[in-house]
Amino acid sequence: MGIRSLRKKKAREPQNNPLSPNSSMVSSASSPSLTPRRKASRLYANFYVILSVSLFVSVIVLLNISSYKLRAFERVISYHMIKVVNEFPHDPQAFTQGLLYAGNDTLFESTGLYGKSSVRKVALRTGKVEKLKKMDGSLFGEGLTLIGERLFQVTWLQKLGFIYDQKNLSKVGTFNHEMKDGWGLATDGKVLFGSDGSSSLYELDPRTFKAVSKQVVYYKGHQVHNLNELEYINGEIWANVYMTDCIARISPNNGGFLGWILLSNLRKGLVEAGHRDIDVLNGIAWDDEQKRIFVTGKMWPKLYEVKVFPINKPIEEGVIEQLCLRRPLTFT
Ligand SMILES: *[C@@H]1O[C@H](CO)[C@@H](O)[C@H](O)[C@H]1NC(C)=O
Ligand SMILES: *[C@@H]1O[C@H](CO)[C@@H](O)[C@H](O)[C@H]1NC(C)=O
């Protein structure tokens, strides 16, 4: 609705309102003794009341519109750190590419590398692999997500994806998606969100695997390249950025940048404990029931439950760019 039509509507409204000054309840008919002069001045008074009300309404409408626009343009970027609240064992041979929490202290995990790729059901508390589906040696497992009873998995350097039954990990279908490559997958329960190692966040139709939308993700004018493992958390997409200890928080609606989570203390702790062969941070899982966040990495001996908290001190110019942004990669 335009401002003009709103104003007109508001200006007309008082005529039908029994509490308004010019309604029939206080009309001249109910006060027959008024002189013409007093009638005229009352008319003027009514006119001014209507005028001020409509001006007031217009100002409120304009203020709302401009603050809405400001909010849309000046998206506030937040910066968080993490605190470990629990740690669990994780298979140090797992080249983690996809991770999700499926309730009942159970995780599903997809692993990569040729000849070592798999889909697994893992007990959270023990890290024990309860079921494992080995993939063909020609395939490199990547992102994984669960819709209903079906696990969806993408593969590296291919557009080929697989669908598995979550109960027994038996393959129930294959698909071809419209991304350039298969890196990450997540879901809000209705659509698939995907990444292909570029700076694009895709929305895919889970029936046709066509790209419904493709949004380039920017942080302060820089493309955020190498978007990797994805998780849908509280209406946001959280993405590992490959070769960094940073997670990007992205709006699934428009690809807008919401914030960074810095997790370099995890790697630091592992290296200090003597784990020198660990690969990159990768893998985010979300327990929506108990609001638990889990993260791990490729060949990491541990999986962490973490809590995020805002960084209160100002971050120096250029630090985030150095920590969290990497050049685009090509694998041809
Ligand atoms: C939850 O997991 C435990 C241990 O794996 C299993 O015994 C139990 O049946 C599971 N419960 C449900 C509801 O799936
Ligand atoms: C796996 O489970 C589904 C249903 O849960 C069933 O239809 C299918 O036959 C099972 N596959 C195998 C190989 O056991």
TrEMBL record:
Domain of life: Eukaryota
SUPFAM superfamilies associated with the record: YVTN repeat-like/Quinoprotein amine dehydrogenase
Keywords: Membrane, Transmembrane, Transmembrane helix
Molecular functions (GO terms): glutaminyl-peptide cyclotransferase activity
Membrane spanning residue stretches: 43-65
Keyword Transmembrane helix attached: yes
Residue ranges with Basic residues bias: 1-11
InterPro entries, per the entry: QCT (IPR007788), Quino_amine_DH_bsu (IPR011044)
Bias-annotated ranges (Low complexity): 16-33
Region annotated Disordered, chain positions: 1-35
Pfam assignment, any one: Glu_cyclase_2
Name this polypeptide is given: Glutaminyl-peptide cyclotransferase
Source organism: Lupinus angustifolius (Narrow-leaved blue lupine)
